[in-house]
Amino acid sequence: MKHFLIFGLVLIALSSNAQKKTKLDPNTAMVNANKEAAIKSLTEHYEADKKTALQIWDFAEVGYKENKSAALHVQHLKEAGFTVETGVAGIPTAFVATYGSGSPAIGILAEYDALPGLAQNAVAEKSPIAGKNAGHGCGHHLFGTASVSAGIAIKELIAAGKLKGTVRVYGCPAEEGGSGKVFLVRAGVFNDLDAVIHWHPDDVNAVTTTSALANKSAKFKFYGVSAHAAAAPDQGRSALDAVEAMDHMVNMMREHIPQETRIHYVITNGGKAPNVVPDFAEVYYYVRHPKRKDVVEIFDRVVKAAEGAALGTGTTMKYDIIGGTHDLLINKTLAEVMQTNLEKVGGVSYTETEKAFAQKLEPTFATQAPGIETATKVKPLSYVVEGNSGSTDVGDVSYAKPTVGLRGATWVPGTAAHSWQAVATGGTEIGTKGMLVASKTMALTAIDLMSNPILIQKATEEFKTSIGDYKYKALLGDIKPALNYRD
Ligand SMILES: [Zn+2]
What we know:
Radius of gyration: 25 Å
Number of strands: 11
Low-confidence stretches: 1-21
Largest sheet: 7 strands, mixed
Strand content: 15-25%
Bound molecules: zinc ion
């Protein structure tokens, strides 16, 4: 009797499951149809997007100077019917493009700045471009293009009456050290959103599940007295001495700060000639730690070292804050949604020519290449921290609204970010293929979020729990964007 009962229950369960599979509820059917439409649209736009990405790869404009790159994105968004506000938050190359109205409102972040000193041809050997400085070593030419394209795919669904709400594409300049998004967060441009979606070029396909380091950076300027270095050295006070004294003190400090801290510096001005006592010298510092609070405390100690150095060398010191970013808050509710969509989209596969490119590039890596097959796959969702991380101004956005992102395999697996190899691959179809994975995954995730209010509600609750009673305060204070920080 008992066995019959269980058998009967199993049958009921099986038949109701079968029903679920064959008869989708209208909302699920609509969501699936919208996802198919978005994939079709992005696939059709791929050739045009490839052209855009490679054009921006070629522009290779550094932080806050991304005039042509931002203009190209703005042009495409306007042509697609978006209302675009430019010069947002006092930054000429920042923009906010909006389509639709009311809630839900989903934001998609776009970046487009390049890195100085990395100009490189799109070939599998080190080949700097003569007369050119910057290169897209972080793949932001792909980043911006995929985000604009995903936004346009969502716009098409809103225009066709298949989705309700607002889609926004945020043009975010100067991610590399300029903290561009922090000024946008400070200006409140994310305040009426429900969620934010972003991505980043990488050598794997994975949803971002680990945080980033909070970071505060500044340029310390020392002013001394110049004099003939041989005839009248006693008349001089060396600003370079002050920089060296400061660096020495900070280097000793490393033993007495939490070991997860990262401090790095470059001397951006050390004087002009050995026979002149330098009356000006400058050093550019980054202070990073997983926790925002620790960054603030350690940064203040670095300032003390600078003050001490000035005192001991008879110089004066002032410092300009350049950047400051929060750690990145992970939203597991949104990460799960994105994971499902990334798995639906899948990884990339290489043609024979691309395989040959990868094989030529792999021996140039500092570490053993994991093999190109890893780019064909999607990493399972995992919250285990693997390796070290950098910093991102997306961190500040994640403190404004529930935020989710992915990494798309745009580089030959094993490629380090900010390398000539990353620039080279970003200029080939290996890069643009990975870009398509990202644009599709972001569009599908936006469709889910705009179709299911429960997801937004759950993500918002999780976001509120993560924030607790912390009141957002930009690490860089109330400074204006350092629009010339790359000069
Ligand atoms: Zn980057």
